[in-house]
Amino acid sequence: MSVAIDIKNALKKYGDNVIIPDLSLKIKDGEFFTLLGPSGCGKTTLLRMIAGFNTIEGGEFHFDENIINDLDPSKRNIGMVFQNYAIFPHLTVRANVEFGLNNRDYNKKEIGPMADKFLKLMQIYEYRDRMPENLSGGQQQRVALARALVIAPDVLLMDEPLSNLDAKLRLEMRQAIRDIQKEVGITTVYVTHDQEEAMAISDRIAVMNLGEIQQIGTPQTIYHRPVNEFVANFIGRTNLILADCEENEVDVLGHKVRIKDLDYKGKVKVSIRPEEFMLTDDKTTIKAVVKDTVFLGLNTHYFIELPNKQIVEVIKESMIDNMIEPGTEVYLTINTEKVNVYTEDGSKNLVIAHEN
Ligand SMILES: Nc1ncnc2c1ncn2[C@@H]1O[C@H](COP(=O)(O)OP(=O)(O)OP(=O)(O)O)[C@@H](O)[C@H]1O
């Protein structure tokens, strides 16, 4: 039975070092929930608190209505998959998957078919009699996932499970993980520092920094409406332009953007994603100069100098003969609906209504 997870005011210290000062979040039953943030922000620490491998210095961890703070890890009914596959090298694929079942109350006749079901689901049934050393990294990670799922855990915890795989396999495996999670419907907490992976795989994402949650939301909300400058910079790429806010309006390269925070006056930082710039023939718009181009196949990145000498990055779909050479004058407009405006210190998004 999959469970909902409710974390209230979690506190984690190593000695005098406070790693997580006061963290609260709710994960829904069956949800694919990702902890995303830079190295050292406390993602693994929080995951290990959920698993029971880390002590909890304060707060409450609930699985459904039960407090699990003092519950032994072995009693939490958790499946885990780590970065290094952690499968037993001296056991066959099938014996690895059966391993977790041997310590539970199953009779021998049940164990084989249960393992087979997950070997088939993970598409490794044909390798069932092989030793792990004769499998690719992706196949080994499938074994680890089958072994984690076969015990019918209440929660699946994954810590950077794809980081040892090459780029192509990572894409394949993240799709496989997503499909299996949907099929099995198990509450999943996934740790990664890769924002693209987080967006591709998650129902919701918690962006963390320095042991604190910056924002929780769907991939779309987090990408389009980052609550502060840290999230805007961490998710995707963005251009930040300084501007003045007067009478609740900001002049962004000749376009007016209204803010919702009616008390704010002064300087602001405007965040514009590279794909929200349009190149136009309209000479009444902003005149700018292409300084550099990077062709990346599907897209081309242009580095363009604005009249104030700031260089912005603009991404356009590549077409066979539309490469704009450095030195070319271009005219720019922006899609104002997608623009975000932050306070000068970057702490608050002024175009969205804030709860606090
Ligand atoms: N056993 C430990 N003793 C002392 N400090 C620790 C211990 N484990 C982690 N830390 C510290 O806690 C902080 C958070 O570490 P954590 O591993 O949770 O970060 P992370 O976000 O998962 O980073 P990464 O993506 O690099 O794995 C870091 O500053 C780390 O040095």
TrEMBL record:
Residue ranges constituting the ABC transporter domain according to the UniProt record: 5-235
Keywords for this protein: ATP-binding, Nucleotide-binding, Transport
Molecular function terms from GO: ABC-type transporter activity; ATP binding; ATP hydrolysis activity
Pfam families per the UniProt record, alphabetical: ABC_tran, TOBE_2
GO CC terms: ATP-binding cassette (ABC) transporter complex, substrate-binding subunit-containing
Protein name in the entry: Iron(III) transport system ATP-binding protein
Lineage, uppermost ranks: Bacteria, Pseudomonadati, Spirochaetota, Spirochaetia, Spirochaetales
